[in-house]
Amino acid sequence: MCAPLSCTYEQIRQHDIVYLISSIFGVFAGLLFGIELLILIILRFIENMANDFSLIELKRRFKDLFICPKKEQIINRCHFILLIVIIFLLYTAISLTLVPKTERVIRPSLFTYQYLLTNYQDSLQCSCSHISIEYQSFLTITSRIHQICSSDFVSNDWIDYIYNTIDPFHLNYTDFRITATGQYQLLASFCQLSRQVLDDALSNLLTSHFIDTELLSYNVLYERIQSSLKEFQMTIPNSFLNSLSVIRQTTGANMLMNMFMTSSKFQYEPAFAIFSIFYTRPLSYQGCNCGLSSKCVQSSRGMMAGCYPLEALLQSTFQCFYNQTCIDSNNVFQALNTSSSTSSQFLTNSTIESILNKLMVEDYSINISYENYFSKCEPLLCSYSYSGHRDILDVTLNITGIYGGLVIIARSIVVLFLKLYRNKNQKVTPQNNEA
Question: Transmembrane residues, as ranges (predicted)?
């Protein structure tokens, strides 16, 4: 179970009216006081510049800042210097502080999105205009079937060749060649059915819809499709295998006879002088009785012979098809290319049943047109976050908003410091008078 401990969310909303009014008054008061002080400083500077100016005069004036006959002048000058220092320190601290910033891009192009994805991959989010997109509009899936299905061994020419060169009436029932034509016809049917089931399933998949509210990057989209394809591979053989299982169980349960007479044979015994009794006797393969099991088989000429051609074929392998002597010693038809077996996911000794369980599919290849996916998604808005320094205007507005408070704090500090300083200087040290 998931049992979430906590959830977080981000909400974008406007400031309330109280916050706006207080901010405006704070900025207005700070600007008013700052402009007044700035004008006063400029006027005094111009007045002083009109007089003779030298380095010695500059030093003298700096010392005069703290040597004043009036207490109020000392407080004002110290207040001004402390205020400048505090503002400078605050300005530096606020400027260097990293703050989260969120940017928004309306209807970005593919080039813009790729740039944002490269630089802001962790925080980039883009919402799609269309949350349901048909797979076939941006996805192509191709499959590769086992090479036996494209070989001559499932063709009518091969089946006719086997039928014309083999005389089943002079062979023992345990010889594979008796049911060879039937098994090859079954193999051809399996290849055809596998292709048909696969084509129908792929068609249904591609006409279905990919649903997501967010625009996905190529890598994430590829992983999502691969995950869907794996689920697809596991489910598509089910209906085919279920139908095949019903046929096998029905045949075995009813002990049906086949045209090749490989599961049982007719026997007769004379009962009277005129009449005879006919009955069927189940055949055996390596001690396995067809009357008890329909899956009795035994090896014969690289393939399997058994009670029924279907069961014998499913328990056979394709090893014989890679051996020219085994499959056709007359060299009329060429054996399968052994180099192709190395690129197969199936081993040469894999049973045909295990291969059929995967619809004889070697692999799937997918091709994603990300340009088509992007255009179908048609992102309305992309947002991304990053940490950055405040700009000059933002820092100035922040300091301006608290300027009034800084003035009061600076003046209070100066007044307190001067009181402590004067009290220390005015302290009288008592002297002892000796008689």
Answer: 17-43, 80-99, 402-421
